[in-house]
């Protein structure tokens, strides 16, 4: 329910406890690689890697979000670094890990850069035209 977080994400702020629980049960729990980001003994965010299918099975896509009260402490960078390492171990079919971040969101670009991702270009079509590809 944190609009600062959802602003640059593909999902909307949950409007009720029920819709949040429904998302956790039907989207988060069945997800093959989704981890909680924990700090100070509580869940403060999440990070996920989605393996593509078919010919693109060797590619994984990374997504992450952190509660705004925890921003600016290096937590996301640590989570992305750990997730990138574990994803390659736990999904040995992966050969590359990709992150698509908004061109208007330098903090998120900085996170993946600090975690070792290399900027590859700017996606140029439709909704993606505001997004950088690492
Ligand atoms: C993006 C996000 C994960 C960052 O989390 P975080 O824990 O604050 O990130 P970190 O502290 O590890 O690193 C942030 C970096 O961005 C930098 N930064 C922050 N605001 C910035 C700005 N306006 N311009 C440039 N750099 C900025 C910080 O200085 C830091 O870099 P540094 O260590 O070199 O100083 C968090 O803001 C978030 O959850 N946002 C909403 C969801 C989202 O956008 N997810 C990504 C979608 S793929």
Describe the structure concisely for a colleague.
The protein contains 4 helices and 6 strands. It has 134 residues and is α+β, with helices and mostly antiparallel strands. The protein has a single domain, classed as Gcn5-related N-acetyltransferase (GNAT) (Aminopeptidase, 3-Layer(aba) Sandwich).
Question: Can you put this structure into words, describing what you see?
Answer:
With 134 residues, the protein is α+β, with helices and mostly antiparallel strands. The chain has one domain: Aminopeptidase, CATH 3.40.630. Helix content is 31%, strand content 27%. The chain has a six-stranded mixed sheet with strand order 1-2-3-4-6-5, with helices on one face. Strand 5 and strand 6 form a beta hairpin. The longest helix is centred in the middle third of the chain and has 16 residues. The two termini are 28 Å apart. The mean pLDDT is 89. The structure holds coenzyme A (COA). The site of coenzyme A has 22 residues, from strand 3, helix 3, strand 4 and helix 4. It comes from Salvia splendens. This is N-acetyltransferase domain-containing protein. It holds the Pfam family Acetyltransf_3. InterPro entries: Acyl_CoA_acyltransferase (IPR016181), GNAT_dom (IPR000182). GO terms for molecular function: acyltransferase activity, transferring groups other than amino-acyl groups.
